[in-house]
Amino acid sequence: MASSDPSEWLQTRLPKLSQLDSLQRCLICKDFLKAPVITSCNHTFCSLCIRQHLQSVSNCPLCKAEQFESNLKRVIILEELVSCFRELRPQLLSLLALQDSGEAVMEPPPPKDIEVVEISDDDTSKGPDLVQCPVCSKSMSAKHLQQSHLDYCLRGEVEPPAASALLKLTRSAKSSAERKRGGISLFFLAQKRARPSPPPKEEINHEAFYFNEVHKHHHEVKRLPKIDFSSLSTVKVKEKLLNLKLLTQGTRPQLELRYNQFYLLYNSNIDLSRPASELELRQKLNQWEKSHQGFSAPKAGSTIYGDELKYKALTDKDFPIRGWLKKYREEFTTLTQTARATHAKKKASAIDVPSGTTTPESTTQSPGMTTSTQLQSSTVAVNEVIELSSHELEKQFFPDSKQDANVAAASSADEKPHFAATESLSPARSLAYLGNAAPDSALQREGSQKIAEEELYDFSNSMLA
Amino acid sequence: MSTPAKRRLMRDFKRIQLDAPSGVSASPVPDNVMYWNAVIIGPADTPFEDGTFRLAMQFDEQYPNKPPLVKFLSTMFHPNVYATGELCLDILQNRWSPTYDVSSILTSIQSLLNDPNISSPANVEAANLYKDHRSQYVKRVRETVENSWNEDDSDEDEDGEDEEDDDE
Fold first, then answer.
1. What φ, ψ does residue A442 adopt, rounded to 5°?
2. What is the model's pTM?
3. Distance (Å) from the C-alpha of residue A337 to the closest C-alpha of chain B?
4. Which residues of B are catalytic?
5. How many Å lie between the alpha carbon of A175 and the closest alpha carbon of chain B?
6. List of chain B residues whose C-beta atoms are within 8 Å of the C-beta of residue A426
7. Do both A362 and A433 map to the same domain?
8. Is A313 on the interface with B (CB under 8 A)?
9. EC top class, in one word (chain A) (predicted)?
């Protein structure tokens, strides 16, 4: 299960791919769209995600327009586009990786001290000091999980065995760029050696599927109906489950939960170009039951809060705030530092943008010297240069700044327009979640326009001088 | 075991690490991805400026179809925050949408700080002072800001190098 994030593209030679990446994701699960369906308000989600949402609320999660399951339509071409992109993604990422940006790249640093950790698939090996990876469920020390394993796991990669990590270490004398490349190839080598390669996945020709194999686009299966349980006896419910080859044990609420979940799995499966078998669906259902609280006996010995903090929900009246703060003091210290850093960075970049664009010439001339007539005539110049994009303008001003590899400094001619865009992207995006993206992004645009205008003034002033 | 909720939370985590909104940070507690700690820095040019407010979040397997429980652990003085630290924010209740993630929740809470909704206050005193005695309100808020620094013993040491040394 590959876990990835659109922002991975920001550190490549084509940062704009993060938008392409982002647009192919479901807004609910944030993963790539799976069996995409479109609502009557023209928003797209994974079939399963939106069906699940519509079970409790009859509106579009994005625009809140009234929405019903019966309106959902499959978007075949989007599914093919997404799978195509997903297949290409790892290759594209490595092909477009910035070669020599060094520390600026937000890649996880190589683990400082390499510890050899036995990673076992066996759940029973979970000792007192081991924690489970929340992604792949492997057990390991918390330190190893946080410092190394999670990065690999989230990228959907297999963590290189400790042996290859040691190999990497012996090469650490070489230049960082070389080491990086060495590291990657070693990773693949190690993987090859470690296990016989899995049978190659059947290559799917998405183009042929979409254009030529039209007969495969629609499946000859009916959707499961919604059941009004209030009018059904338990015997009847069990009968229905039995017809679907589902388990019939459990309490009445469990039977209903089971049917409803299978209903979701089944109906969303039909929206896939290449649906899973019913057997697979039943396995998924069993998996789901294992993790659903409606099916589990109250767990004993939860370690969530440590011993003294057990079983406390945040809303409990006697939730031990002091104890919590003490237990996680180190975490909070780190979080405070991180939050302060981003806070300071945004502050600094807000100041940097206008000042960074001031040319040496324009700084030598005091702005106070400019008379109003000069300003008026300068507007002519402004109109002339307005043809130039701010991008090109900066190129004129900073022909050499490209060598500045520090992306964070964001003063390089090529990086900067992009950087400003991504800076404004994140607040805009988070506000988009809140359903008022339009006014905000308009504001952002206005802001950057204003800056561009200021630049033009500086520019024309310096020309006149 | 990996579940949709856990996978989503790991995505949220990755998101906030790679592309953090200004002045907020969050991470799951070391042994359970369903419980998160978070810090919000008080926004600049507001009475909350530079406060380091701590929060905890609790998710369940229904996330993101259900909102998490969110609670301030730092003492707050705000019209929409109860004495218990729980907060009254529409997007965490009836206006929740499964499209929200940890980043957007924290950003909303951050902007709630200086933009309280005083029509349905959780802290009546704070709401009244905010309406009628703004300077007193600001004074009370500044007190909580200073308290938020004191909660972290190692805060005075900006490098945080000897945080291990000062165990009480």
1. -65, -40
2. 0.64
3. 9
4. 88
5. 26
6. 19-21, 103
7. yes
8. yes
9. transferase
